[in-house]
Amino acid sequence: MKMLRFAIMTLLSLLLGTQAHAQAQPTHIKPALIAESVVPAAGGIVTLALAMKPDRGWHGYWKNPGDAGITPEFNWTLPAGVTAADAEYPVPHRLMLAGLMNYVYEGDYAHLITLTLPAGLAKGTKLPIQLAADWLACTDQVCVPESGTMAIELVVGDGTIDAGRKGQFDRWRALLPRPLGSEGRFEVAGGNFRLGVPLPASATLGEVYFFPLTDGAIDYAAPQTVRRDGDMLTIEVKAAGAAGELKVIDGVLALDKDKGLALKALPGKVSAAGAIVGPADTGRMEGAGGLAGTLLASFGAALLGGLLLNIMPCVFPILSLKALSLARSGGHETAARREALAYTAGIVLVCVGLGAALLGLRAGGSAAGWAFQLQDPRVILFLLLLVSAVAFNLAGLFDFASLGFGNRLAAQGGTTGAFWTGALAAFVATPCTGPFMGVALGAALVLPPIAALTIFAGLGLGLALPFLALGFIPALRKRLPKPGAWMERFQRILSIPMFVTALGLAWILGRQAGVDGMAMGLAAALVLGLALWWIGRRQSHGDGRNWLALAPAAAVAMAMILTVSPAPKASAGAPAAGILAAEPFSEARLAALQQEGRPVFVYFTADWCLSCKVNEKAAIQRQEVADAFAARRVAVLVGDWTDGDPVIGRFIESHGRSGVPLYLFYKPGGAPEILPQVLTPERLTALAV
């Protein structure tokens, strides 16, 4: 699955280039590169430590992260002749979250790396050492990819080690697993993995646990049973699917907290005899409800959130396409069901595709969030042209069904047209997070890929549910008006919201790419409109080869899509507009306002989020709210996420959300309150009481 996420990330980067790949500076786990001796001897070795200090509530990961997480990566820049061995990891700890077993470090820890110096270096030679490291920092709710570049300079000398530094490195070494000194044996039988480890009967045991370095050997979250039979220790646990194919297994046998043995095991017979040492591990029972419970709750929230999207403002422009698709079914049972299933398939596949792309980007270290695709002006321009074409079609300028390629997207039978209607609905409707969606999508970003994609599928299923119900419940379908001449008039009327949507997309394009970008987008829409008008004229004369006229228009539109680029960002210090006298969001400014003892209202928005804009006009930017906030000296900070600012993205993630809108209220000295995603002036003025 990790390779799949990487492949998705790479493909999306090549096609869209929507994200900047510059790594952010670490904020939650602080790294430091320390040398045991700053004057190593030529031809000798020197040990370096990458000391990691997690913030309170945060943790890092072992070389095998377990069910979730990412392996740390180390990239060295070394002087000629100097080589670095693989990093050594201390014995990890277990952390069960939502039924997932994580192999982590919750306190301070250090990776030890041995450098070998070439012989013949003159004393006094300077050796600049640089390490670029990437790791994952997590809490029990959110994960943030972090990175850092550390540098030190060594000077060739006599290898002297300071006594204080020696004690520090000795403590770090004591936490590393010691070599077992002999090989173990493992076998897979009856769905269980059994590991036999030769260990003297006199060895003192605490809480024994086997941490496999070889992936695919065991079910990480399954309980482990430990038995002792003389000088043989046996660990039995549920096997993973690939365990029977493995030829060798590496891992660490923890004998107690922070104490363990590094071992290698080969296939062989392992006896199940012996007395059980301590109670069977019950890690699976930790975490609220386990993975299944968490997945079920998140899927339900996503389903309900998708259902509510049907009444959100950002969904209204595609309601016309639904209405026409329903009317086109004509009341026939088979046709209605096929259209409903095709529409649902289009929505679910797009939601899962967007979810997979999002997970891939995040696996590559990006701070991407939900609706990441709308942070690229090229995607906005593509949507502008698509929505304009739909609006022209609804207005009667041309007929999709007469076009060769159009017939495949809007087939007269209705099934293919319903599929692409659903796909468009999902692509346009999901930029904003409505009620219930925030929690569900936030959970999806920390669950395993398959579980996360299930949640994204639930979101799509919820969005498609009303149309699906109409397709399969005849009583509901009978309430629809009968097909007739009204459909053509209704179609012309419904072109209006599509033109309004196109106008809104042009405005968003202007916000992202500047006036020049907006002018380019409108010019592309004009070229497309002229081509479609010419096609419509030819259709009226019965010319079935008119689709060729779209070739030059499509070439011009594609050229404009490829050349549009984001406009230079305004100064970060520029004040935000509005009667609330809001300031641009930054964590430093938020901390300063909290130190002053002031209440703070923070909201995160984006130009492409229609529900954000509705909330701003209907609730936030209201005079009564401004008066109430001024009376209580409530400070207002606004975070603009239109261009996918990674700093804002990480802050949103830290509150268990994956997109906008997000509204927070900080009382003096208190934790932030997450406000509903549908606001009213009364709800906001009540905060200032």
Structure overview:
The protein folds into 4 domains: 21-176, Thiol:disulfide interchange protein DsbD, N-terminal domain (Immunoglobulin-like, Sandwich), CATH 2.60.40; 184-284, Immunoglobulin-like (Sandwich), CATH 2.60.40; 292-563, no CATH class; 583-688, Glutaredoxin. It is built from 18 helices and 24 strands. Strands 11, 12, 13, 14, 15, 16, 17, 18 and 19 form a 9-stranded mixed sheet that branches. Strand 17 (249-256) and strand 18 (259-267) form a beta hairpin. Helix 5 (333-363) packs antiparallel against helix 10 (449-472) and helix 6 runs antiparallel to helix 13. The model is unreliable at 1-26, 280-289, 401-413 and 570-576 (pLDDT under 50).
Features:
Immunoglobulin-like, Thioredoxin_domain, about 700 residues, alpha+beta, 9-stranded mixed beta sheet, 18 helices, 5-stranded mixed beta sheet, DsbDN, 24 strands
Topology:
Layout: H1 2-15, E1 29-35, E2 45-54, E3 60-66, E4 73-77, E5 83-84, E6 93-97, E7 100-105, E8 109-116, E9 126-138, E10 143-155, H2 163-174, E11 178-179, E12 184-189, E13 192-198, E14 209-212, E15 225-229, E16 232-238, E17 249-256, E18 259-267, E19 275-276, H3 290-308, H4 319-328, H5 333-363, H6 377-394, H7 406-409, H8 415-429, H9 437-444, H10 449-472, H11 474-477, H12 486-540, H13 550-563, E20 583-584, H14 587-595, E21 600-605, H15 610-620, H16 623-631, E22 635-640, H17 646-653, E23 662-666, E24 672-674, H18 681-685
Parallel strand pairs: 11-18, 12-18, 20-22, 21-22
Antiparallel strand pairs: 1-2, 2-8, 3-7, 4-9, 5-8, 6-7, 9-10, 12-13, 13-16, 14-17, 15-16, 15-19, 17-18, 21-23, 23-24
